[in-house]
Amino acid sequence: NPDGAAGLDRALDQWVMGQVASIINADPSRPRLFWSVDNTPRRWCGHVFPGAAVAIDNPDNVNRVAPLDGAWRYELKGQYGEFPTSQMNINVTLAADGQLRWGDAIATFTNRDIVADADGRFTVTMDKDPANGRPNHMQLVDGPLQLAIRDSHGDWRQQATLFDLQVVGGPDKLRQPSDDELATDIASGMQDFVQFWVGFKNTFWNNPSPNQVIGPFGRPREGGWGTQAGGRFQLADSQALVITTLSGGSDYTGFQISDPWMISPTPLHRTTSRNIAQCTANPDGTYTYVIALVDPGVANWIDTAGLHEGWFMLRWQNLGPDAVIEELVRDVTLVDLEDLDQVLREGTPRVTLEQRRDEILDRVAAHQSRLG
User: Using the 8-state DSSP alphabet, how is residue 355 labeled?
Assistant: First the structure.
């Protein structure tokens, strides 16, 4: 489709950087926490890093990854921010196919599981031994593994958790490859890496028909740290997809769109995503999102950034104790914009152009605050 053709070069740019990152940070004897799965350009070591995004990258998240192997023992020291994120989760997944790919979780913690001191400091131990009474312990297995840490911001002014990862035991360090060897590995594995993420996109949720919601359901393969729903949108200039949800008492909720390649539009200057702080509830406590190419004047507009086709995802993390997953999505309606008022709930919040302008300016300022 035209949107897919227009976005192909951008998707390839992101996947190429993902492959680079997966190769240069693949030594479990020298693991480094690497900020990834984010398409927002940023300065790093004197360079502009363009991002390395996959799988409907979420602008609410700060994702860090590192290679592990059960042959070594590790300590991960953390420090919550003064205004901590709504959910922090730590996952160890199998990584036989390489870093920055999809693997089954073998150990998972969220901030609800972590034992921290009064100052928000904690240590996670990781090795092949059982916990044997140790708090914050993750049991590893032999072979390539990936550590994935996710801080989900319910407000972009929240502060991501600080981490330091150290090897504290195990065999000698592996031989370090030369730059030429790294370049060869990057090039030789590029096609496989790209094919992996193209295949992921082609099979995600069985490639559903557009303008319906798949789910909600939990994420057991990933350790059960969240709940998700979503699908594909396909809209004319004059149409909107209206989705009404409940928060379920979640510490974090989010709504994001992406292009057909599952690469999200840049989120700073357009409302292509929303977390709970960026949303306004209906009088009955539900939340109504309107996906559309033009601003319908509804508070929770999801701007497609000019896309007629793409993906959308809803996320709930740290659900409340009384939440019923099957009831989190209340209704889904494809509608002509001229008939939008007929399907909106009574009292659905509205905004003026001036309020939308102020919202965009606040998004930019809030996102910049995350970079310190």
Answer: H
Q: Which residue type, as a one-letter code, is found at position 160? A: A
CATH of the domain at 244: 2.60.120.1600
77 and 224 both lie in a single domain? no
Closest C-alpha among 27, 149, 39 to residue 88: 149
- The answer on pLDDT for 83 being more than 80 is yes
Residue 229 tokens read as: 């729903």
Residue 236 CB: number of other CB atoms within 10 A?
10
* pLDDT (tens digit per residue) in 182-196: 999 999 999 999 999
* Torsion of Cα atoms, 166 then 67 then 144 then 95, to 10°: 140
308: exposed, middle or buried (Cβ count in 10 Å: 0-12, 13-18, 19+):
middle
What is the pTM (predicted TM-score) of this model? 0.93
Among the three residues 201, 226, 261, which one is the final residue of a domain in this structure? 201
Q: What are phi and psi of 306, to 5 degrees?
A: 90, -5
> Which of 287, 222, 231 minimizes the C-alpha distance to 254?
287
301 alpha carbon, distance to own chain's centre: 20
Number of domains in the chain: 2
Element containing residue 341 per DSSP (H, E): helix 340-343
Claim to verify: residue 175 and residue 142 sit in the same structural domain: yes
Q: What is the spatial distance between Cα 282 and Cα 285, in angstroms, rounded to a whole number? A: 5
What is the band of 371 on the pLDDT scale with cuts at 50, 70, 90? Answer: low
The pLDDT of residue 365: 92
In the block, tokens 């994935």 appear at 148
Residue ranges making up the domain that contains 352: 208-369
User: What's the CATH code of the domain at 161?
Assistant: 2.60.120
Q: Which residue is listed with tokens 């939008």?
A: 340
Let me know how many helices (H) and strands (E) the chain has, helices first: 4, 20
One domain for residues 281 and 212: yes
- Do residues 302 and 330 both lie within one domain? yes
Mean pLDDT for the stretch of residues 45-66 = 85
Identify whether residues 19 and 167 lie together within a single domain: yes
pLDDT for 267 equals: 85
Give the span between the Cα atoms of 279 and 255, in whole angstroms.
10
The residues near 350 (Cβ < 8 Å, ≥ 6 apart) are: 297, 298, 299
